[in-house]
Amino acid sequence: MSLNIMADYILGIESSCDDTSAAVIRDGYLLSNVIASQQVHKDFGGVVPELASRAHEKNIVPVVSQALDKAGIKASDLTAIAFTRGPGLLGSLLVGTSFAKALGIALDIPVIMVNHLQGHILAGFVKQEGKENRQPSFPYLCLLVSGGNSQIVKVNGPLDFEILGQTIDDAVGEAFDKCSKMMGLGYPGGPVIDRLAKEGDPDRFVFAKPQIPGLDYSFSGVKTSLLYFVRDEMAKDPDFLEKNKEDICASFQKTLIDILMSKLVKAARITGIKDITIGGGVSANSGLRSRVEAEGRKRGWNTFLPEFKFTTDNAAMIAVAGWFRYLAGERTPLDVAPVSRIADY
Questions:
Q1: 140-309: CATH superfamily
Q2: Of residues 171, 202, 177, 194, the one with CA closest to residue 288
Q3: pTM: predicted TM-score of the whole model, two decimal places
Q4: C-alpha to C-alpha distance for 269 and 152, rounded to whole angstroms
Q5: Which of 213, 210, 217, 205 is nearest to 171 (CA)?
């Protein structure tokens, strides 16, 4: 029996890094969200682009098929296909882009390119049956934090984004990963440091906080501060790192969160905006989530924290961002190519 032809069924495809993901939404409500993660990169301490793209080629057909099955629809029921154009690893993006265009041609339906970062920013608009589905009001501020980006974005509408501040060097997620690797704690570093930080004293050690004007960030100096600190202490006691890793992680994490929050508080004060969201992989960090909620209570913010399943790279956020663009009449030509970097929004 034919499904309701008035409904918009959007298939989202996300392949910007090392997760192959497909999701289906119906008029903004999530029907399925399937993610195939790649474990091979842990042996190398980071994502290997060639291995990532090969894994995407292997995973994308079964992942899309599973997403359609879980949504209870057929490919022929789809209204449009949203895909991540960038930023990300070019080989990985190419797999998702090519598949989306090929499926769009086969089904004779439009394809819609999505900026991966906009997907993270709009993840809070993915609605789920049986849940409260609180959503921020426009304009709102989003602290976008991940392995590749650290930005404060003013979101004026689902297609209108304004970057108020961003990192001038490293992203905060990169700082977590590199310092975890330096301390021999493993990859990805963010979850490891977050777990150890819960057992440590965040005020025991002090690391450098860069003084950057405006709303921009810098995290390279914090990494250097930690590196020299550990080097000097281990010269005195070779077991210093092992004996103090919980306190080091707690103090390092607190420093990063202090830097992030100082600029977010400043942005909220300058703009007068009270609706505050966070997004990106680092938005899963328990310390950051607690601080955002605490500052919200203190300053009268309306805070919106994404569910953990929407903090990592996922196709649900791509689908909902694509749906907004579909409603606005946007369609992507089939000759569009993926891009590893996107200059702006």
A1: ATPase, nucleotide binding domain (3.30.420.40)
A2: 194
A3: 0.93
A4: 13
A5: 217
